[in-house]
Amino acid sequence: MSKVLYIKANAKPEGVSRTFQISDAFIERYQKLHPEDEVIVLDLYKLGIHFLEEEDLAYHMPSPGEGREHPVLKYAYQFAEADKYVFAEPLWNLSMPAILKAYIDYICVSSITFKYTAEGPVGLCKGKKAVNITTRGGAYSSGITAEMEMGDRYLKTILGFMGVTDYTTIAAEQLDVTGIDVDGIIAETIEKAGEFAKTF
User: Fold this and answer.
1) Which CA distances in Å does 193 have to 29, 57, 88, 170?
2) What is the C-alpha separation between 200 and 39, in angstroms, rounded?
3) Domain range holding 109?
4) What is the DSSP string of 26-78?
């Protein structure tokens, strides 16, 4: 049995968010294909993830007495103990919603999800899988605009830093372009995500 973290980062709720239309369909399909797996939903806006404060930073070098229920460290322990990660977020201003970056600041904890060695940093989350389901108003997957996209690229980089190198992007693009068949793009991306669920 695998433990799956479904990490949702959009201020818009289900039924309104185009991102969640795709990611929720993916999760539904995944659960049908893998009924033995446990899916844990982390809706970052509903959880009220906030930015780390000065006093929180002291816990990024945890001591043995600080367990899995610690309010600052619990997300890092949860992340380290999971087997698969499903991220769902829109591209905002060429990057990700700030709340997702705030969550990443919680889970990047030395000695839990990575460590420093004499040879450099080493990820402690090796052998795990991640998929990022993202929506974009324009086209940012190829051409000169691909260099402007810093949300998915950052997520792939930081997960690699923690040892997660099995990483896939599923993106629905051009959703804000006039004259584009948005419903068709979303339907096509849902179908693509459903196919990917078979092997994830």
Assistant:
1) 9, 37, 12, 7
2) 13
3) 3-197
4) HHHHHHHH-TTSEEEEEEHHHHT--PPPHHHHGGGS--TT--TT-TTTHHHHH
pLDDT one-digit tens code per residue, 31-46: 999 999 999 999 999 9
Can you say whether residue 127 is alpha, beta or left, with left for phi > 0 and alpha for psi between -120 and 50 degrees?
Answer: left
Q: What is the total count of domains within the chain?
A: 1
* CATH number of the domain encompassing residue 180: 3.40.50.360
pLDDT digits (tens, 9 = 90+) for 153-198: 999 999 999 999 999 999 999 999 999 999 999 999 999 999 999 9
Global pTM?
A: 0.95
pLDDT in tens, 76-100: 999 999 999 999 999 999 999 999 9
CB contact at 8 A, 163 and 123? yes
Residues 136 and 180 sit within 8 Å (Cβ to Cβ): no
Q: Cα separation of 174 and 159, whole Å? A: 26
SS3 131: strand
